[in-house]
Amino acid sequence: MAFNTTAAFFAALTVVVYLLTNFLYLRYRKTLLNPVLASTAILASILVLGNIPYDTYMLGGSWIGTLLGPAVVALAIPLYKQRELLFTNLIPIISGIATGVVVGMTSGILFTQLFRFSNELILTVLPKSLTTPVAMQVASNLGGIPSLAAVFVMVAGFTGYIIGPLLLKWLHIDSPIGRGIGLGTSAHGMGTAKAFEYGQQETSMSSVAMTLSAVLGALLGPVAAWLLLL
């Protein structure tokens, strides 16, 4: 198989832009410099200004996409590392995550009903509160649009990243476990990035919440879709 220089270029460009924005974010801690948000905006601008077709960019993007599978498996690592804390607080953690998953799916359903989305779009929005690789797979299995599901995941993540800390402060939630579970369940990877700014325990709990919410969401997604399409 011939080496595809175009694919290699765009894969490398994506990694370089992400690393650059991540460096700037860690240095200045500005919301707009969040690496996911900033790198997406920069790459989109490059495609628009350079009149580069999305399909051409995805020659390289698909290389990175192949890492989504291993990324899902890697989500088991924080579960193992925090197993003692998890088992000690199992009931409040599970109940909090389950509530968050149900609320996340319900809010997505209400949003789609409000704007009268098609069934395909409803099934695409449904897993918006799950981490990207799981949400894309769930959307695909349900008959939604995986690539668009990733966009809704990003929107949910950015919303939780910005509004989540304000809600935690307003509700006087000072518990590291509570903050971590809230951010990880509602805003997945973006929430975990924000939890990192609070401390190690918040980060660990957010990782656990992101992992378990992905599992619960994958199980509840088909049930919710079946009820919606009855």
Overview of the molecule:
- The protein has helices at residues 5-28, 35-49, 54-65, 68-74, 76-81, 83-88, 90-114, 119-125, 132-142, 146-170, 176-198, 200-228.
- Helix content is 83%, strand content 0%.
- By secondary structure, the chain is an all-alpha fold.
- The protein folds into two domains: 1-52, no CATH class; 67-229, no CATH class.
- Helix 1 (5-28) packs across helix 2, helix 7 packs across helix 11 (176-198) and helix 9 (132-142) packs parallel to helix 12 (200-228).
- It is built from twelve helices and no strands.
- The model has no long low-confidence stretch (mean pLDDT 86).
- 35% of the residues are buried.
| Basic shape | globular
What order do the helices and strands follow?
HHHHHHHHHHHH
| Alpha carbon gyration radius | 18 Å
Q: Helix proportion of residues, in percent?
A: over 70%
Q: Helix segment count? A: 12
Number of domains: 2
List how many beta strands DSSP finds: 0
Estimate what percentage of residues fall within beta strands. under 5%
Q: What's the end-to-end separation, in Å?
A: 47 Å
Structural class: mainly alpha
List segments where confidence is low: pLDDT < 50 over at least 5 consecutive residues: none
Q: Based on the structure, what is the oligomeric state of the protein chains? A: single chain
Biggest β-sheet description:
none
- Output mean pLDDT: 86
